[in-house]
């Protein structure tokens, strides 16, 4: 699908053009969404440069993601997108800066793009000016992506705090955690940790993109663009620091849950150990009177059986009293 956005005073408008038609003169952004080979060729004919293929976009080498050919900048960064209702993944999106025109190539629907488009198409949005160019659109998309990541990190922080509350603020009247509870905690915390790694990957890609754009600033970009890039760079750095903080908190919670599981396991082993020690004397007494020797006077007495039972009970209670006194129970 090809979507062409043209500048109309202080906002963008969507112009639907067929592959065989000509490109509008006031175009600033061509958005290629899951393009076909014919659509890629049409855009290449419009702008006179090659469009990155899907295979080119998944390359992880720095030289394959950020490079310049004949004055055209090719930039690729992983951007988060939503799969289903909760699951989020990252996918590479390519940005091609050809003069005052921006071409984006993507095979996903990140919410950041939808947010930027909705805002940029409103008159008087404060984001698009009369001198809007492809670089302005690129920085606007990056800003929308970083804002989206900040919102996502806030939600992750709330989930982590909820898990923390369930671990450290268990009230006296509440039931103790079971193995199922611990398993769920580990799963939830681990899932957030895995998701943070995707956020870190996206932030790292955006940060490298901004560094490359700064080093290869188009002529005539203006001081406002440079200041905008610096502001976005500070935002990405602060978000990366926040991701590090949340990752450390997740590691702490994982260590805490594993420690609590070890404590519960030790308590169970302790109970079995005490029970084994407590039943050793009664077992010894029962073994003695089960030897069936002929010369055991107690066996012929009326009080022999009650005495054996009493000895077994007392021998079981004495170790328990001793353990309680020592504080082992």
Which CATH first-tier class of the largest domain would you pick?
A: Alpha Beta
How many independent structural domains? 2
The end-to-end span amounts to: 71 Å
Q: Describe the main β-sheet briefly.
A: 7 strands, mixed
Structural class: alpha+beta
* Residue fraction in strands: 15-25%
Order of strands, widest sheet: 2-1-3-7-6-5-4
How large is the radius of gyration?
A: 35 Å
Helix content: 55-70%
Query: If helices are DSSP runs of H or I spanning 4 or more residues, what is the number of helices?
Result: 8
Uncertain residue ranges: none
Residue-averaged pLDDT, rounded?
A: 81
Oligomer: single chain
Question: SSE string, helix = H, strand = E?
Answer: EEEHHHEEEEHHHHH
CATH fold-level label of the largest domain? Beta Polymerase, domain 2
The overall strand count is 7
Query: What overall form do the CA principal axes indicate?
Result: rod-shaped
The CATH architecture of the largest domain can be given as: 2-Layer Sandwich
CATH superfamily of the largest domain: CorA soluble domain-like
InterPro entries: CorA_cytoplasmic_dom, CorA_MIT, CorA_TM1_TM2, MgTranspt_CorA/ZnTranspt_ZntB
Subcellular location: Cell inner membrane
Keywords: Cell inner membrane, Cell membrane, Ion transport, Magnesium, Membrane, Transmembrane, Transmembrane helix, Transport
Protein name: Magnesium transport protein CorA
